Amino acid sequence: MGVIVVFLSDKEVFSYIIMVRKSVFFIVILQYFACLLWGQGADVRWDQKKLPKKSKGIPVISLRHAGTAGIIASNAAELNLVNQSRIGFSENTELLFRVAEEFVMPNMGLKHRWWRNHTMAFATEHTLYYPYPGLKMLQSAGIKDWVPDTVDVHQGVAMRNELLFSWLINPQEPACTNPVPQMVLTGRAGLEFYAGAGDNQVAPVDYFQLLYHTQILTGKILYYGGLQLDSYFLSRFHYSVNALLYSVDMKQDYAIEGNLRLTCYVSNRVGISVMAKMAYADVTGITRQMVLPMLDLTYLIRPGGHGTIEHGLFKSRKK
């Protein structure tokens, strides 16, 4: 095997050094502007376990916000007083329920994630509601315009089925040490219907968003679809905003609904939410519009560490 030796003059060596320095400087400048473009002002917690030692780590990527196609860990849970609560059941399945509605309208749901990759996930959600106790309470309360005494309320179950497709818009680059918080865009589409033991004579309840949701009591089907955006800022604040279009039997009756939620996590387990529900409905010749503010309380079970909720907000616990 021969060895080829190349002799360079001092001027040529100096030229190569200048060329290498320019290339390195150009790469550093590109990386700096990429970080500035995608990550300015972000306050991101890091997961130390996913990169070798002496590394700052990479941001915890999560598609697990409520209303997305993400699934929380099987040994974790997110409990809310008003918003949807979730309990991990398996790697791809979680149980759903609403605490505030359980006493008047017992409900239980299941969400299953069928497919995912690094930035996308697809899931379906199925929820059963038992509205009979709530309807009887309204009838006993004497609100004649909603459920008159003469109406025979039959046993029945309402069901909500939904398709969820989530996309992580800005997956983080490990080379960028100051990335922007993750943003998850979710497309949602579904339908609601009611199945009873007899001919239900209960008319739709003419009160804010119940005007179009209770159309299913008369045998109609409520179709809906829309988008939801989830993200966070300042490491403790998570926000979620969605807009949904409802159609009654795919005819002229429709409603537009928007929901905004801002949650401040006062600790790694407890969050306080401010929410606003906005709706406009034009159903059966009746027009209704509303803005309804609400407060909510969130409690996370196992919010950090291996196999638990990765909310993109907290440092992982050391084991």
Question: Layout of helices and strands, plus pairs?
Answer:
Blueprint: H1 10-39, E1 46-47, E2 58-59, E3 77-80, E4 85-90, E5 93-97, E6 107-116, E7 120-129, H2 132-140, E8 156-168, E9 184-196, H3 210-213, E10 222-233, E11 237-248, E12 254-265, E13 270-283, E14 286-301
Antiparallel strand pairs: 1-2, 3-4, 3-14, 4-5, 5-6, 6-7, 7-8, 8-9, 9-10, 10-11, 11-12, 12-13, 13-14
Describe the 3D structure:
The protein is mainly beta and 319 residues long. The chain has three helices and 14 strands. The protein has helices at residues 10-39, 132-140, 210-213, and strands at residues 46-47, 58-59, 77-80, 85-90, 93-97, 107-116, 120-129, 156-168, 184-196, 222-233, 237-248, 254-265, 270-283, 286-301. The strands form two sheets. A twelve-stranded antiparallel beta barrel has the order 3-4-5-6-7-8-9-10-11-12-13-14. A hairpin with a 3-residue loop joins strand 6 and strand 7 (120-129).
In short:
This protein has helices at 10-39, 132-140, 210-213; strands at 46-47, 58-59, 77-80, 85-90, 93-97, 107-116, 120-129, 156-168, 184-196, 222-233, 237-248, 254-265, 270-283, 286-301. It is mainly beta. It has a twelve-stranded antiparallel β-barrel. A two-stranded antiparallel sheet has the order 1-2.
